[in-house]
Write the structure tokens for this entry.
Amino acid sequence: MSQAHGGTAQRLVPSPVFLLSTMRSGSTLLRCVLGSHSAVHAPHELHLGQVHVSTGASADLALQVAGLDPQELRFLTWDRWLHRELSRSGKSVLVEKTPSNVRIWKDIATCWPEARYIFLIRHPAHIAASLQAAGYDNPTSVVTASATLLEQARAELPGPTVRYEDLTAHPEDVTEELCKHLGLQWEPRMLDYGRQNHGPFIPVIGDWSERIHSGRIQPSRPLPDEADIDEDLRTLCAVWGY
């Protein structure tokens, strides 16, 4: 491992904020709410896990002499992209919310030792129903696999956990607590995200539904009866306190 690993002196963005969640948990809504703060830039999903570098034999030798390796070169690429996003926004705090980041949370923590985290959960049955509506096969398996990774991250990384249902029912209380976590003053404009420019809402890089296009925080659906919950999801419901 090179000396650059584990040191924030090498990072242009030393403490980005990662919003970790499963798919269909309301992460686009939360990133828009956070991104409505005057100090927070929360771009569309960046999918860092799909950004790789490849090197040939000569480059490998050059990296070795420079005290680098392919992993650190990848991390430098990630960091430079976040820095570009933050610099173009003119803001001071960057929030990255790609749900598939739960697959690479260990790499994220290695790249940014001083990263900050927010965890977002939603009733598992509602996640599964949303996945099914989006055409996913075996949505229950998708939920449980992603939730397992999220729980591993929650056990190892610091940061508050937000319930989607609480965000939609009590947005001011939830956002005030998140602002405290990020060292920011709460701003009322966060509750009216539709007045801010959050970029296009299109598939693959975030939610694109009519609800998110509305620009309003809307109530979540009523919680399902236990009898209506897939048996394979009940354990997760208990872990998450539903």
Notes: Residues 1-7 have pLDDT under 50 and may be disordered. The longest strand covers residues 116-121.
